[in-house]
Design brief:
With 387 residues, the chain is α/β, with parallel strands linked by helices. It contains eleven helices and 16 strands. Helix content is 27%, strand content 23%. The two termini are 19 Å apart.
Length: 387
């Protein structure tokens, strides 16, 4: 069935609004809503800005006021039908007298789903499946978390044009520009956890903290425009969010005086369940997997702690393990206009023995960041993520 142009246009605006909540709604989804009055004119708009705050529908309905009666609401995710930190959006739509609700994506969370059924049962016309792909893309971190029961993974790396992340002597500061590094901090701040391997901790002693500065968080998808600069950072402060630092350290070799164990942010050190270590830290013991840890188990444990998305910044070995285990949902690469010719590659062994096993990606975005280029890509096939 052909979707009316009006439905497409208003849902596209709702998707755009949803993108403004990136980085501040965890562990909730990003959601956008547009409310029309009975005559078809836009009466209210809203998006979910931070966890515990009003949902997109509530914001849009408040803006619309009495004009919502007899109108239409466009929502990127099925209106919730349960009481959590806020009340059910399905009831709010009914109380406002909305006559029609258009939904892009059904809610996969059984605790919150059922809004569409309730609306239909009360005589509201409900249309589903409008701009589903775009709405799933803008909300992909949370949908991965809700559907697969694990955190969504973004792998970030910086390299020269010939794919080197460090020189032959191991030095790597700085391959990319201050502009690229500032962009990384904004993306770090939008994640639930920043993940690195013990090799990176031993070699570089990083803080693994997020220090965002204006301009605000950069969008990770053309369908997901960023929030205004100061608004996004201020919402992070309101939400009280500081990304968790995670060190993947199979044998527990992290030095006790490492910066990653300071008091700037909480830290979790993932070690093997049989590792003998005297490290005084918050340890997460996990099963072994080949030469390291079971990263599926790590992501499930992080999801259980309501970590929706992780930002992997470890060295080539850790990145290779995530890719080999099929756990990278998105790649963010910063390429500098420079050549090294030798030195450490950005990616280590990733389970590829022959060219037929190559990990194929598709580009989402290519953008200049200062003198560098930022590439955003994702696996060509992502089973289970977009259904």
């Amino acid at each position: 069935m052909e979707i009316p142009e009006q439905d497409v246009a208003h849902m596209a605006r709702a998707v755009e609004l949803a993108g403004r909540g990136h980085g501040t709604t965890s562990p909730n989804p990003v959601v956008g809503c547009v409310v029309l009055d009975a005559a078809g004119a836009v009466a209210g708009e809203g998006f979910h800005a931070y966890a515990g705050g009003p949902h997109a529908e509530i914001v849009a309905l408040a803006q619309a006021g009495r004009r919502a009666r007899g109108g239409t609401a466009y929502v990127t995710l099925e209106p919730c039908d349960h009481t959590g930190r806020t009340g059910p959006c399905s009831l709010a739509l009914l109380d406002a007298g909305v006559a029609r609700v258009v939904i892009a994506v059904a809610d996969p969370n059984p605790k919150a789903a059922g809004g569409a059924a309730r609306l239909r049962a009360r005589g509201v016309a409900v249309t589903t499946g409008v701009l589903t792909a775009a709405a799933e893309r803008v909300n992909e971190e949370w949908l991965t978390y809700a559907r697969l029961g694990r955190s969504h993974v973004t792998w970030k790396f910086a390299a020269t044009l010939d794919g080197r992340s460090a020189a032959a002597d191991g030095t790597s500061q700085w391959i990319t520009s201050p502009e690229a590094r500032a962009d990384v901090h904004r993306l770090r701040a939008a994640s639930g956890a920043i993940v690195a391997g013990v090799g990176t901790v031993l070699a570089d002693d990083p803080s693994l903290t997020a220090r965002p500065a204006a301009p605000g968080p950069a969008a990770l998808s053309p369908a997901a425009p960023a929030a205004t600069p100061d608004a996004s950072v201020s919402r992070l402060a309101v939400a009280g969010r500081v990304p968790l630092r995670v060190v993947v350290d199979t044998e527990g070799r992290t030095p006790q005086d490492a910066k990653v164990l300071d008091d700037q942010a909480p830290t979790l050190v993932a070690v093997a369940e049989d590792a003998g270590t005297a490290l005084k830290a918050d340890l997460l013991r996990l099963p072994r997997h080949q030469d390291g840890l079971d990263l599926h188990a790590l992501l499930r444990e992080l999801a259980a702690r309501e970590v929706v998305s992780v930002f992997v910044e470890g060295g080539p070995a850790l990145a290779g393990s995530f890719i080999a285990q099929g756990l990278v949902d998105r790649v963010v690469a910063y390429l500098a206009p420079a050549l090294l010719g030798s030195g450490r590659a950005a990616l280590g062994a990733a389970g590829v023995r022959t060219i037929s096993e190559v990990h194929r990606l598709t580009f989402d975005d290519i953008a200049p960041i200062g003198p560098d280029v930022r590439l955003i890509a994702r696996p060509a096939t992502q089973p289970g993520r977009e259904k």
